[in-house]
Amino acid sequence: MARPERRTVRDIRRGNRAVLLHTLYFSGPTSRNDLTARTGLSAATVSTMTAGLLAENIVVEAGQVESDGGRPRVLLRVNPEYGFAVGVDMAETHVRVGLFDLEMTERAKVDYVLRPARHDPELVARHILSGVEVVLSDAGVSPEQVLGIGVGVPGIVEPGPDGVIHAKTFGWDGVPLGALLRRGTSLPLYVDNGAKTLGQAELWFGSGRGASEAVIVLLGVGVGATIVADGTTFRGVSSSAGEWGHTKIVADGRPCRCGGRGCLEAYVGIEAILDRAGVASQGDWEEDLDRLLASESPVIQETVSYLGVGLANLVNLINPEKIVIGGWVGARLGERLLPGIRRATAANSLAEPYAATSIVLGRLGPDAVALGAATLVLEEFLNAPQVARITAAG
């Protein structure tokens, strides 16, 4: 029989502090009275903790509002310049490094081009580390002000400090990207699957906000998904849940980059779309897709049908209240063809779960993966602001 967990007074205070900071962050400028009502903490606890957060400059005053018959109430908010987060989008064709304040406003950005056929781990690590230096310099931010670096990557990321990545499409099998990066930085590092970082960004700040049961899908060169259950990302036993692009939609179908056959990605990933259309791309995938969309090629309607099957599998299996379509391919298809995507999904779904699901486009654009990677740092800060700050400064 397991022993009951013992919580110290310090643990309780730390938990209360995290609850307070989460509420303040996501509620926007809020009075102490409203914080008391929303968190369930006592007025005395809220008063003591907000005083501490103000003294540390984590929280700042944000004006006043009139109260019912009493003095105006002071509004509080998280100080957006208390610290900064670096978010990295490592994709097939580029490494994008962005610097964000605590409101997740982008302060600086730099891109490095990658050749799709070559993803040398040492080169990728150098690009990321160089990008961190560039964005800090461009924004006039010192390393001591940075709370950490979040990195969104293709493939499966093993839990653990070394950020070990398995990405067959990159030719990576057990690449310790986190360990490679730690050779060049002492900042805290957080590495996760890029579809999951996009999913967290859309869940916190985009089209998924407010949904407790949702799926956020990424359509680009690769295809993946974030599954949200009871407001939390579902990861599975080895943190590989959400490999939606490698679910099978055609038995013994087209070969996929993962080595399998008949995967959804082999029909709706950009390379698969262009290959089925007979387009000999020179790597300008976005322009190639735009031309294909403008030509009204029958391959586009076929792609919508395949995508509808893939989304219907999510509807029938997971029964989400919302499906958010993200990624640059998803954005281009959805902007023109969302009604058709919904019809194709409905045609392949059970009526009851489909009726309970809304299918919408993501709102965060091409920087969503990098923004989501920065939220990995933000999440740690909100849960343990003192620890995050000390580690970053050390």
From TrEMBL:
Alphabetical list of Pfam families matching this protein: ROK (PF00480)
Source organism superkingdom: Bacteria
InterPro entries listed in its UniProt record: ATPase_NBD, ROK, WH-like_DNA-bd_sf, WH_DNA-bd_sf
Family: Belongs to the ROK (NagC/XylR) family.
Name of the molecule in the record: ROK family protein
Organism: Microbispora triticiradicis
